[in-house]
Amino acid sequence: MIKSMTAYAESSVTQDHxxxxxxxxxxxxxxxxxxxxxxxxxxxxxxxxxxxIAANHLRGRIExxxxxxxxxxxxxxxxxxxxxxxxxxxxxxxxxxxxxxEAPITLDQVLAGKNIIVPMSREIEGDRLWQVVAxxxxxxxxxxxxxxxxxxxxxxxxxxxxxxxxSSQLSQIRTLATRIPEHYKTRLEERIAYLTKDTQxxxxxxxxxxxxVLSDKADVSEEIVRIESHxxxxxxxxNSGPGQGRKLNFLTQEFNREFNTIxxxxxxxxxxxLVVDLKSILEQIREQxxxxx
Length: 293
Hints:
Blueprint: E1 7-15, E2 18-27, E3 32-37, H1 46-54, E4 60-70, E5 78-80, H2 82-99, H3 107-111, E6 117-119, H4 126-177, H5 180-196, H6 204-217, H7 221-238, H8 245-265, H9 269-289
Parallel strand pairs: 3-4
Antiparallel strand pairs: 1-2, 2-4, 5-6
């Protein structure tokens, strides 16, 4: 099943007083591009997190944001930054001497300095932390994959409908193509009659020969056969496994080449209008294909 490259997922896992919250956003990209925003305590997990993501996703810009909360009961302990407290006290003392005042320096004044008393730093055990992070990232990655598959299913339906529209237009072109010889013969007769003012008889054999030459130059049967082959292959890719985006994108280029060739050979306004319609449908397909993994 094809997958979309745009999706969003989030997951939160709590284990042993640790909560890991993960949000993932994915966008279109030619390659797999993983961007991580991890807290300081999880910087060592970068490669492991990327491996979890790469297991489910082949292409796309994937942005991951991780947040850790520690609810361990004794986590709210504090410590004094003694060096900063002494330095701040000395600065206050210098200021007092400079101002020539004998006012005492109080504890409240020292505590007014920033970060004199700070939460005690607590290092979380690596294995304990990784367990909760791995669970949260794996769950979020699974949700992202499910959303990409669901969106891919919608894309598949839309693209199949557009392929049917191309097939319908192609049938009309095939019908018009059978009239090309007669069309050129009529145009040739009219042009010769205009130039000779009906003063000379037209050799039917020569007229048929010239009309045949023009018709051969305007023949689009080969282009029609190749387009039919492209349609079949396009539908096969839609029903194949993930990772078909590049192949589908290449086929849109091949479709465009064949449509341009038919347009350059078009001998009637009706055929030209059909080619314009085909290229309009193809542009819609191309935009959708850019979103397929």
